[in-house]
Specification:
70% helix; mainly alpha; 17 helices; 4% strand; elongated
């Protein structure tokens, strides 16, 4: 029990290490090792809890709490500090006690989150171009860059000195150019986040948004939204898109401010140099009007008639354009509604897991179909903005489901491999007496099979089957030992 209390008291630090900071590839590699170590310690706690439960004859239906449970209470806010509501469930709730069953369940969630982070880290490290782009990000965050631009335009014009004014006008011009470049960068980053179908590209866009400040993947909420943190602030990944309007308004205000400063400085220069613009000289030549001939009048009439015909043709083209626009709008509305329906169906399919692998794959297909429908909505339609907002959420949901499918496939592969190893182990000891070497080989296979079954996350569909197989496997292993 003492060992269990010591390990449980370390849970707050352990859980906080279950995050992935997106940045330098070497740091990502180190974080994978840390996540692996954390998962291993969590499994050790699970084993000790299982032993303690067995020792105290605690049944699954009984409500029992850890003896001397004060160490478990340190998992909560007093040890962790302020917890953002979005990741509160990562650390637990405000209870002072945890039953053994509750603690086991929470540990399963933490271990599964570790698998999710490892999958993302592996995807990043397998993409050389992505790694190079991440390693090259050494600029300030967009907030930091914007603050510098705003400070550069805090200029007190020196109206009495033409030389200084010229320098200030040049400074204003440079700041305006930097503002336009910043605006282009802003559009690029937000378009990358909104329009990308790949979670890795979305993460790359977010990394460009935060710059060298970096950000970390902290947790997944109930809607499979990734919760991220940067500089101690937490938000959903897609909340970055809401910052676009803020930046656009601020940039527009700075552009107006810079234009005003420039006009004031240029006007002051004119006054200092007494460069008064001269009125243009009006020509005194008298223009002789040509006489209209009958031929010219007929020609003018023909031109007017042709113009009327052209206007009539133009009106027909306008009506045709309006009709085409209405048709595109109707198609866009239909696609948007179909995408919403598919998204609701996909979300409904994966409610109350665990599910069969086939169910997760059906949900993945529906998310993909919904994404394709939203992606087909033209930018010039009224639904474009709403479709782009939905796209960002749907793509993250799609990626989350895809990761879940990988976990389910791995769990199924573990189960099948364990069954195969059990068959091989039985074949080794089928005709006793057996040599020590044969017994050792059989023992190793049983151990491998047990390890594979224990590595299957509780959230997977085959977990119950693995749990039922474990006792007999452990019995066979103990018999050989």
């Amino acid at each position: 029990m003492a060992n269990l209390e010591i390990l449980v008291s370390e849970l707050p630090t352990l859980i906080q290490s279950l995050k992935l900071t997106i940045g330098d590839s070497n740091e990502i590699t180190e974080q994978i090792v840390l996540i692996n170590n954390a998962q291993e310690q969590l499994r050790n706690i699970q084993k000790l809890i299982a032993q303690e439960s067995k020792f105290q004859n605690i049944k699954s239906s009984a409500i029992a709490t850890l003896p001397r449970i004060d160490t478990v209470a340190s998992l909560l806010i007093p040890s962790v500090g302020f917890i953002h509501p979005a990741i509160a469930k990562k650390f637990g709730n405000s209870e002072t006690k945890f039953s053994l069953t509750e603690l086991q369940s929470k540990i399963d969630d933490w271990i599964e989150w570790g698998y999710f982070l490892q999958a993302i880290a592996t995807d990043i490290l397998s993409d050389v171009k992505l790694i190079n782009k991440l390693n090259d990000i050494n600029h300030l965050s967009l907030y930091g860059e914007f603050q510098i631009l705003a400070e550069r335009l805090q200029i007190d014009l020196v109206f009495e000195n033409s030389h200084i004014l010229e320098g200030q006008i040049q400074k204003i011009t440079n700041s305006q150019n930097e503002l336009f470049q910043f605006q282009q960068k802003l559009n690029y980053i937000f378009n990358a986040i909104k329009n990308s179908r790949s979670l890795l590209n979305i993460l790359l866009g977010a990394s460009a948004f935060y710059g060298k400040s970096g950000f970390a993947l902290e947790w997944l909420d109930e809607n499979h939204e990734l919760i991220i943190s940067s500089d101690g602030k937490f938000k959903e990944l897609t909340d970055i898109l809401n910052e676009r309007d803020f930046f656009q308004e601020q940039i527009h205000a700075l552009i107006i401010q810079s234009d005003t400063l420039r006009e004031q400085a240029e006007e002051a220069l004119k006054k200092i140099g007494q460069k008064i613009s001269q009125e243009p000289i009006i020509s005194q030549q008298v223009e002789i009007l040509p006489k209209f001939s009958t031929q010219k009048i007929v020609r003018s009439a023909l031109i007017i008639a042709s113009s009327i015909l052209i206007l009539g043709f133009g009106s027909w083209k306008i009506r045709e354009h309006l009709s085409s626009t209405q048709e595109r709008s109707a198609i866009a509305i239909a696609n948007f509604k179909s995408a919403q329906k598919l998204g609701m169906e996909a979300a409904s399919l994966v409610q109350s897991p665990p599910h069969l692998l086939k169910t997760w794959q059906q949900a993945e297909t529906k998310w993909n179909q919904a994404i394709n429908l939203l992606d087909s909505i033209p930018h010039e339609t009224s639904l474009s903005d709403r479709a782009e907002e939905k796209l960002a959420y749907y793509r993250i949901n799609y990626k989350s489901i895809s990761q879940r499918i990988l976990i389910e496939k791995q769990a199924l592969a573990n189960l099948e491999s364990a069954q195969k190893l059990a068959i091989e182990a039985n074949l080794f000891v089928q005709n006793p007496p057996n040599s020590l070497l044969i017994q050792q080989q059989a023992k190793d296979k049983w151990q491998q099979a047990i390890d594979l079954l224990e590595a299957i996350p509780k959230s997977t569909f085959v977990y119950i089957q693995a749990k039922e197989m474990l006792p007999s496997y452990k019995t066979s292993y103990a018999a050989i030992r």
